[in-house]
């Protein structure tokens, strides 16, 4: 069977319509005929269902750059997995913005009303702006043409931790932390602020509690902790090493605390924070649920780094969340996770 | 027992010398007396072995900034693990450059001639220049004052793969890859170049082989592959998305191939390449040994990212190697791995 290319789409007659659209969900109808997007035509050429498009065979059609090769690879992979799908063209699907392909639930097709995934196709080699994520599945094609699917979402980050630290705590600011001497034991045991200098501190009193600079800055700002030089001294100490990053992390730390979530360092997982949604006491701590990485909201992700974060968070059974901080103080939350369609 | 601080060191008399140096490896002798580095004095104050230094107790001594708090935490941790160790001061130890602490093998001390680890202390929050790594153990103190040890090394990267691809292969350059039609099957099956478009290609002929742009650029440069536009067309295509990074990756790809090591994409592990040291045939492929991340040689590592790479590579039983590319074409190899002292 042969088809023709005009104005960026491939056209074929009634037999093609029956065979491709009615039976297998390719293209859109145009009266008695069928209109195919280039990626669909490429797939039909690859399978041998179409013999040529304007005298081009599969090789010539791909080489003609009519169809991006990445789109073809993802389209083929999703077809191989048993899905019907459509290119996200204006007038072909609802809400095409930000997506390249719209995938229907298994057993459904373009004539139904349901969508399983909105897919954006991206090369391992390119970067993806954080703005473009949150309501699409990222199909990352690696250099060897293998495809990894990353689902992205805008999660609600909140918890039920409810602890009000007492005022009147004092501490010494050192190079990189604040030491509290004979602090209220609750500050650690219920609030999960700091880390005892020795021993596990889960019972009885605590001799010396070490606070991170972020924890200290938060507690000074909230009138709990007094330190020589006040909030400015802690901020200055934090910014000395980290610059603006310290302020971004502090902002996210405060936002998490205000949502009832306890952030602790995520260093061991390569993140800024790991978080606990419901701390009643440190002695009965549950598994931490989220890994949080703090980034400026104009950040562009290298798919390689995104894959690394997602892979590691999956390996430790936590959800990977990015806190994207804007210049105006706004924080938006972005989640990424592995998807097997 | 009391001691005095002068010119950056802490001094005490004969009894201290016997108790601290002779019995437990603190400080250096100075005639009948002992000279202690501030971090050693801080540890003795913390333990209550020293009562004061110039009337300062442990709290006052730490707050006086005589001793960096990070150094104290690492010193204490290594003592807790049963090691004797010395600050890496000029005249105290051989080869102090780049290290903060020198750790003796268990059961040995400063009066012996052996060194187990040279340790550099760094905050989770600071960055570490690649230049400073390769012959030290990095002790990273996280915000909660927990310590992770990362060993760094300058590995010999080499393998025994020995395959000469035939000349006269042709291909089509697409957006992001090169397609070879009816290529010599050996190119994939023995050389492990590319990835078949469909099927596993491990037996018999291959209809279509997909090469990454890096593979294609390498094969064009070596006179194996002919493509319209030649090497420049491939380079241009690679640089379009990646800029200089493409050239760095290509240089490392070529260096690995020339050392008998086969690089394939490391995307799934968040790296640039995974490598196989000894490929005889793809059908009998062994486990890949290294994950390679390509970085400019002036790169400064965030300990968080380093920990992430090391953790993931350990999880998949591969060694993490950084290929540091210099402006002059030189590549130096840096390995990082988790260490439990």
UniProtKB/TrEMBL annotation, chains A, B:
A Pfam entry, by short name: tRNA_int_endo_N
Transmembrane segments: none
Keyword Zinc: no
Residues in tRNA intron endonuclease catalytic domain copies: 246-333
UniProt keyword ATP-binding present: no
Gene3D superfamilies in alphabetical order: 3.40.1350.10, tRNA intron endonuclease, N-terminal domain
Signal peptide: none
Entry EC number(s): 4.6.1.16
Keywords, ordered alphabetically: Lyase, tRNA processing
Enzyme class: lyase
Domain of life assignment: Archaea
Molecular-function annotations in GO: tRNA-intron lyase activity
Reaction(s) the record says it catalyses: pretRNA = a 3'-half-tRNA molecule with a 5'-OH end + a 5'-half-tRNA molecule with a 2',3'-cyclic phosphate end + an intron with a 2',3'-cyclic phosphate and a 5'-hydroxyl terminus
Gene Ontology BP, a term: tRNA splicing, via endonucleolytic cleavage and ligation
Active-site residues from the entry: 276, 287, 318
Residue span(s) of domain tRNA intron endonuclease N-terminal: 1-61, 169-229
Functional note: Endonuclease that removes tRNA introns. Cleaves pre-tRNA at the 5'- and 3'-splice sites to release the intron. The products are an intron and two tRNA half-molecules bearing 2',3' cyclic phosphate and 5'-OH termini. Recognizes a pseudosymmetric substrate in which 2 bulged loops of 3 bases are separated by a stem of 4 bp.
Complexes and interactors: Homodimer.
Family the UniProt entry places it in: Belongs to the tRNA-intron endonuclease family. Archaeal long subfamily.
Protein name: tRNA-splicing endonuclease
Organism encoding this protein: Halorientalis brevis
Taxonomic classification: Archaea, Methanobacteriati, Methanobacteriota, Stenosarchaea group, Halobacteria
């Amino acid at each position: 069977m042969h088809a023709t290319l005009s104005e960026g789409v491939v056209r074929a007659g009634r037999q093609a319509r029956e065979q491709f659209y009615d039976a297998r969900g390719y293209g859109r109808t145009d009266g008695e005929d069928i209109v195919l997007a280039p990626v669909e035509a490429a797939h039909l050429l690859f399978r041998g269902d179409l013999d040529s498009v304007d005298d081009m065979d599969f090789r010539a059609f791909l080489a003609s750059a009519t169809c991006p090769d990445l789109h073809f690879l993802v389209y083929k992979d999703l077809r191989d997995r048993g899905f019907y799908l459509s290119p996200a063209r204006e007038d072909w699907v609802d809400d095409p913005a930000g997506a390249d392909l719209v995938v229907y639930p298994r057993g459904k097709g373009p004539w139904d009303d349901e969508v399983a995934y909105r897919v954006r196709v991206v090369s391992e080699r390119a970067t993806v702006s954080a703005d473009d994520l949150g309501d699409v599945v990222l199909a990352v094609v690696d250099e060897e043409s293998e495809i990894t699917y990353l689902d992205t979402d805008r999660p609600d980050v909140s918890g039920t931790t409810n602890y009000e630290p007492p005022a009147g705590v004092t501490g010494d600011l050192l190079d990189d932390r604040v030491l509290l001497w004979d602090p209220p034991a609750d500050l650690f045991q219920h609030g999960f602020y700091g880390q005892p200098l020795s021993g596990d501190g889960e019972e009885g009193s605590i001799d010396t509690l070490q606070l991170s600079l972020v924890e200290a800055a938060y507690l000074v700002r909230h009138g709990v902790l007094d330190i020589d030089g006040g909030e400015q001294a802690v901020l200055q100490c934090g910014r000395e090493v980290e610059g603006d990053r310290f302020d971004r992390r502090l902002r996210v730390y405060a936002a998490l605390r205000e949502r009832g979530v306890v952030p602790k360092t995520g260093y061991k997982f390569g993140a800024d924070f790991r978080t606990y949604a419901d701390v009643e006491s440190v002695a009965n701590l549950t598994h931490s649920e989220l890994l949080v990485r703090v980034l400026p909201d104009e950040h562009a992700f290298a798919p390689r780094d995104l894959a690394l974060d997602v892979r590691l968070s999956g390996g430790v059974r936590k959800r990977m969340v990015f806190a994207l901080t804007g210049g105006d103080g706004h924080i938006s939350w972005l989640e990424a996770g592995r998807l097997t369609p």
